[in-house]
Amino acid sequence: MNRLLRLLQDGRFHSGQELGEELGVSRSSVWKHLQRVESETGLKLYKVPGRGYRLAESLSLLAHERLAPHLDRLHWPLYLRGTIDSTNAEALRLLQEQTLAPFLVLAEAQTDGRGRRGRKWVSPVGQNLYYSLALKVSGGAQQLSGMSLVVGLAVMHALRRLGVELAGLKWPNDVYADGRKIAGILLELTGDPADVCHVVVGIGINVNMLAIDAGIDQPWTSIRAQTGSMVDRNDLVLALSDSLRGYLQRHAAFGFSALKEEWEASHIWQGRKCILSTGAQDFSGVVLGVDQQGALRLLIDGCEHSFSGGELSLRLDS
Q: Which residue, 32, 54, 77, 233, is most buried by CB atoms nearer than 10 A?
């Protein structure tokens, strides 16, 4: 199926004979393959007599032969998958199988993409980026402090490099553009965080998705919506990987405190009145910034309080 999608990803018409010759199958088999593509991916196909078949929208599929050489130079072996449950889950499975970190898992689609607080991450075929980097951390909890915020910086700068000029950060793990979510980050740990452990850095970015009803329960946008043009997802992987490598090296060498001011300068709700939800209780206050470990500093009734944890949620106080 992936071979057929690669032939059709340009969004142009291809005759049944042409597709059959490329795949080494009969024209009748091509039609069966096309029906399978539609049913398994949800992609819409057009069939026009005399012209052939084409996708309703062109795709940008990931190319191992283009990505692997660059990632090898970063010493990040690539595991490129088609459709899987989630890249984070696949990375954790590879770690259980004693695969040596660091390594990178990418996928064309996810059936069970996950965000923070158990939210579903919408993951259509070939439209967005599903990216999980597995790392070995041996410096204890200090090496993990503020890591998710540093990853946010790396994502933001990669997006700006691709033309999303309004990209900014929202504490703790989101990247926004023009007031809408464009990317999210989910870190998952395995092992002993006080000693030697592995962390899977999961990143989801809305790339070429434009559908109005995508099943997302909050305002969202994509790189394509922001720039007005389709994005080569391979270019994004390379830009993000370079950015991520640089920021992670700085974080490992100097800690989050060295990046604190840079992060605060890009926080879209800095100095604004917000509501912080812990699940059990809501707190209303003015965002002062973050501390040396990346915890949120909130001014509540004239007193400063700090908050950190994976189940916290921040929203504007309207």
A: 233
Contact, 177 vs 192, CB < 8 A?
Answer: no
Catalytic, 181? Answer yes
Domain 64-263 CATH assignment equals 3.30.1330.10? no
Residue 67 has pLDDT above 90, yes or no: yes
Q: Is 185 helix (H, G, I), strand (E, B) or coil?
A: strand
Domain with CATH 2.30.30.100 in the chain: 269-316
The CATH T-level fold of domain 2-55 is Arc Repressor Mutant, subunit A (1.10.10)
For the stretch 168-200, pLDDT in tens is 999 999 999 999 999 999 999 998 877 789 999
Active site residue 315: yes
Determine the pLDDT at residue 21: 79
**Structure confidence by residue, pLDDT tens digits, 34-61:** 888 777 777 888 888 888 888 888 888 9
**CATH, domain range 269-316:** 2.30.30.100
**What b-and-e string marks burial along 45-80, b requiring 16 or more CB atoms within 10 Å of the CB?**
eeeeeeebbbbeeebbbbeeeebeeebeebebbbbe
pLDDT at 22: 80
Q: Do 102 and 135 form a contact (C-beta atoms < 8 A)?
A: yes
Q: Which of 3, 36, 51, 315 is catalytic?
A: 315
Q: Helices 16-23 and 27-41, interaxial angle, to 10°?
A: 90
Question: Which amino acid is it at 232?
Answer: D
Give the 3-state secondary structure of residue 75.
Answer: coil
CA 109 from centre of chain: 12
Of 116, 170, 245, 260, the active-site residue reads 116
> Rounded to whole angstroms, how far apart are CA atoms 20 and 15?
8
Q: Where in the chain is the domain with CATH 1.10.10.10?
A: 2-55
